[in-house]
C-alpha cells in the first residue's frame, strides 16, 4: 500500500460553516482520534472569505503541521499555495486539473467524481486520487448529486485496480465499513465528525 492510500483512510473535511464550536478545537480532537488527512473546505452558506478565510486556513494548517497530518485545500489554488498545503482537491466544475498539474507538480491532487460519465471524461492519469460520491444521501453539500451507493465503488475498483479512491457523502460509523469493503481506500467525512458528541471516539470507531 502506497502512502496516498494510507492518507485517504480517514479523511476529515471541514470549514467554519460546518462547525458549532471553534474549528481548531474540532480539528485537534479529530487528530487525537486518528484522522489521516484534513481538507479545509470553506464553501457554501455562511462560509468565510478573504482575510478571515486566510486566517482560519493558517490556524488549521498549523495544527496539521504540528501533528504531521497532510493538509489539503478545497478548490482555491492561491490559498493552497500561500498555506503551503500538501494537496488540493477540486470538483468537476472547479479548477482545471491539467493546469494545476502543470503549474503545481508537487501538490497531491484529488478530483471529485459522481458518475461514470464524469469518470470517463476526467484525466485520471493526472490525479493522485478520486473522491467518489455521494455514496449515501447527504445534507451537508447543497448541490450534491444523486447518491451512488457502494456498488459503484466496487465497479470503480474493478475498472481501476490501482487508483486511490476515497468514498464521500453520508458516511458514518455504521456504514463506513461497507465503503471500505466495496474497495475504497478510505472514507471522507464532514458531519459525522463536526456534529459528534465525542469526536475522538467517533473517529476511532469509523
Ligand atoms: N462532496 P457528509 S458529498 C463535500 O459527493 C462533499 O462529491 C460530496 O459531507 C460529493 O460527510 C460532500 O456530512 C459532503 O455527508 C459530505
TrEMBL record:
Q: Which SUPFAM superfamilies match?
A: Thiamin phosphate synthase
Q: Name one GO molecular function term.
A: thiamine-phosphate diphosphorylase activity
Q: Which residues bind 4-amino-2-methyl-5-(diphosphooxymethyl)pyrimidine?
A: 39-43, 74, 112, 141
Q: Which reaction equation describes what this protein catalyses?
A: 2-(2-carboxy-4-methylthiazol-5-yl)ethyl phosphate + 4-amino-2-methyl-5-(diphosphooxymethyl)pyrimidine + 2 H(+) = thiamine phosphate + CO2 + diphosphate; 2-[(2R,5Z)-2-carboxy-4-methylthiazol-5(2H)-ylidene]ethyl phosphate + 4-amino-2-methyl-5-(diphosphooxymethyl)pyrimidine + 2 H(+) = thiamine phosphate + CO2 + diphosphate; 4-methyl-5-(2-phosphooxyethyl)-thiazole + 4-amino-2-methyl-5-(diphosphooxymethyl)pyrimidine + H(+) = thiamine phosphate + diphosphate
Q: What is its EC number?
A: 2.5.1.3
Q: Which keywords appear in this protein's UniProt record, sorted alphabetically?
A: Magnesium, Metal-binding, Thiamine biosynthesis, Transferase
Family per record: Belongs to the thiamine-phosphate synthase family.
Q: What is this protein called?
A: Thiamine-phosphate synthase
- Originating species: Virgibacillus halodenitrificans (Bacillus halodenitrificans)
Q: What is the lineage of its organism?
A: Bacteria, Bacillati, Bacillota, Bacilli, Bacillales
Q: Which gene encodes it?
A: thiE
Amino acid at each position: 500500500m502506497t502512502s496516498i492510500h494510507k492518507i485517504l483512510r480517514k479523511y476529515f473535511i471541514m470549514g467554519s460553516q460546518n462547525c458549532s464550536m471553534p474549528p481548531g478545537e474540532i480539528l485537534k480532537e479529530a487528530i487525537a482520534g486518528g484522522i489521516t488527512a484534513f481538507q479545509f473546505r470553506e464553501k457554501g452558506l455562511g462560509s468565510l472569505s478573504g482575510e478571515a478565510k486566510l486566517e482560519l486556513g493558517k490556524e488549521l494548517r498549523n495544527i496539521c503541521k504540528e501533528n504531521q497530518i497532510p493538509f489539503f485545500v478545497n478548490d482555491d489554488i492561491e490559498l493552497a499555495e500561500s498555506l503551503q498545503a500538501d494537496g488540493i482537491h477540486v470538483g468537476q466544475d472547479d479548477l482545471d486539473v491539467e493546469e494545476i498539474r502543470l503549474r503545481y507538480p508537487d501538490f497531491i491532487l484529488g478530483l471529485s467524481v459522481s458518475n461514470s460519465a464524469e469518470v470517463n471524461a476526467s484525466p485520471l492519469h493526472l490525479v493522485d486520487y478520486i473522491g467518489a460520491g455521494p455514496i449515501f444521501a447527504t445534507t451537508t453539500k447543497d448541490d450534491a448529486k444523486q447518491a451512488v451507493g457502494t456498488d459503484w465503488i466496487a465497479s470503480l475498483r474493478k475498472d481501476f485496480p490501482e487508483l486511490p479512491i476515497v468514498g464521500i457523502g453520508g458516511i458514518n460509523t455504521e456504514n463506513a465499513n461497507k465503503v471500505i469493503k466495496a474497495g475504497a481506500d478510505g472514507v471522507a467525512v464532514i458531519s459525522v465528525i463536526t456534529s459528534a458528541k465525542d469526536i475522538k471516539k467517533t473517529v476511532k470507531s469509523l
